[in-house]
Amino acid sequence: MKEDIFLKIIDDPYFSVLVKEKHVGSGVSRSYFYSIVRELRKLKVLEENALAFKVIVPYKFDNNCIRIISDKLLFLSNQHIGFTMILDEKPACFDCRLMTECVYGLKIVSKELRIKRDSTLPHSSWIQMVAEIANRIRNNSSDAQIIINNN
């Protein structure tokens, strides 16, 4: 998914709509809720009001090539959004207040996608993990669908 669209859907109000089944509690009006639902369906993120992905990694065009961005990820676990991740450019793992959640997320992704981790630093492990997901998409070794939208 294009990076700008990825950033849009992991932020409110899109993310609120993504995690709610009904407009109640989403923080948006009913009509705006269903407008966002229609847009998420067009993006193939929702299908029949259910989440329609396992992993979303953003990309951007760079010199007429698609470059997958390795510091962002949206992951689905047990039909619920497991987590969203945007890494800082400079790793500060040992000072990060989200270290526990970060390591837990790493364990979930590596287990569910059967990706071996080589690094002990979470930041490096995430970069490695997204790179492996990108390799699988490129090699078509998993049920991956590359959606290139012109929005």
Number of individual domains: 2
- Which band does the percent of strand residues land in? 15-25%
Low-confidence stretches: none
Strand elements, count: 7
**Average pLDDT taken over every residue:** 81
Biggest sheet features:
3 strands, antiparallel
Strand line-up across the major sheet: 3-6-7
How would you describe this structure to a colleague?
The chain has helices at 3-9, 14-19, 30-42, 99-113, 122-139, and strands at residues 46-47, 50-51, 55-56, 59-62, 65-68, 72-77, 80-86. The chain has 151 residues and is of the alpha+beta class. The chain folds into two domains: 1-49; 53-145, no CATH class. The strands form three sheets. It has a three-stranded antiparallel β-sheet, covered by helices on one side. Strands 1-2 form a two-stranded antiparallel sheet. Helix 4 (99-113) packs parallel to helix 5 (122-139). The radius of gyration is 16 Å and the shape is globular.
Brief sketch in words of this structure:
The protein is α+β, with helices and mostly antiparallel strands and 151 residues long. It has helices at residues 3-9, 14-19, 30-42, 99-113, 122-139; strands at residues 46-47, 50-51, 55-56, 59-62, 65-68, 72-77, 80-86. The chain has two domains: 1-49; 53-145, no CATH class.
